[in-house]
Amino acid sequence: MSELKPLLLGSMFAVLVVSAALAQATIDVGKITCDQYVLNKVADARTVAIWLDGFYAGRVNDTVVDPQQLERHAARVSQYCKSNRDMVLIQAFEAMQEDGDRAVGPKK
After folding, report:
1. Is residue 105 within 8 Å of residue 55, measured between CB atoms?
2. Is-contact 52 9, C-beta < 8 A?
3. pLDDT tens-digit readout, 9-67
4. Domains in the chain, please, with CATH?
5. What is the largest CA-CA distance in the chain?
6. For the CA atoms of 57, 63, 69, 74, what is the dihedral angle to 10 degrees?
7. What three-state secondary structure class fits 102?
8. How many whole angstroms separate alpha carbon 38 and alpha carbon 55?
9. H-only helix segments in 24-88
C-alpha cells in the first residue's frame, strides 16, 4: 500500500500539470483551417463560431447577439468548410460574405 502512495501522488500531479497547461493554451484564429474547424482539432467549433461572430459584429459595431442566428451561422460555416477544407477559416467567412451568404454580422 505504501508503494502506491507515490504513484498515486505522481499521477495526480501529472493530471494537474496537464490540466493547467491546457487551460493556458492560446489559439490564433487567423490560422485555423476549415478542416481543423469542422473536425474540432484546435478548439470546439461552437466556441470558435461564437468568437468569429463577435469578431465580425464588432467590425460593424453591432452589439446585438441573436442565439438562433448564431446557430444558423455556425451551421452554414460548417457546411461551407466541409467543401473547402484547405481554406483558412476566416477566409471562408469572408468568401461567404462576398458571395452574398451573410455568415456573420448584423441582420440585413
Report:
1. no
2. no
3. 455 555 544 544 455 588 899 999 999 999 999 989 989 989 998 998 898 999 998 99
4. 28-98 (1.10.890)
5. 68
6. 40
7. coil
8. 19
9. 34-38, 45-59, 67-83
